[in-house]
Write a structure and sequence with these properties.
The chain is α/β, with parallel strands linked by helices. It has 4 helices and 4 strands, in the order αβαβαβαβ. It has one domain: STAS domain (Transcription Regulator spoIIAA), CATH 3.30.750.24.
Length: about 110
């Protein structure tokens, strides 16, 4: 059985993204615990605002280390429990490369602009 074309999946995601009510937050440099607190607070704020899409900006992070990636995954899991989704926004090519090397660019919708 042939696989469906990739554009089909993107079309469904794009339609979902158009209907989603977004909420934007920016992650700041912090300790590993601080990043997890930022992620939890972002999800709580998005839920309170009834936002179905949480958009996380990563450009204020000097590096996208394991702790920062862990915090984004925490946010994704918590927001998915409420039926939402998470998009990552970064203009930093090094960040986008790190997301691609870890395979998280296939888990998250990664864009350059909000």
């Amino acid at each position: 059985m042939p696989l469906r074309p990739r554009y089909y999946c993107r079309t469904v995601l794009d339609r979902y993204a158009r209907d989603a009510k977004p909420y934007y937050v920016e992650f700041y440099e912090s300790s590993p615990q601080g990043l997890r607190v930022q992620a939890a607070a972002a999800v709580d704020d998005a839920r309170r605002r009834k936002a179905t899409m949480l958009i996380i900006g990563l450009d204020r992070l000097a590096s996208l280390d394991d702790e920062a990636l862990s915090a984004t995954i925490v946010a994704l899991r918590r927001h998915r429990e409420a039926g939402g989704t998470v998009r990552l926004v970064t203009q930093n090519a090094v960040h986008r490369d790190r997301l691609a090397r870890t395979g998280l660019d296939r888990v998250f919708d990664v864009t350059r602009e909000q």
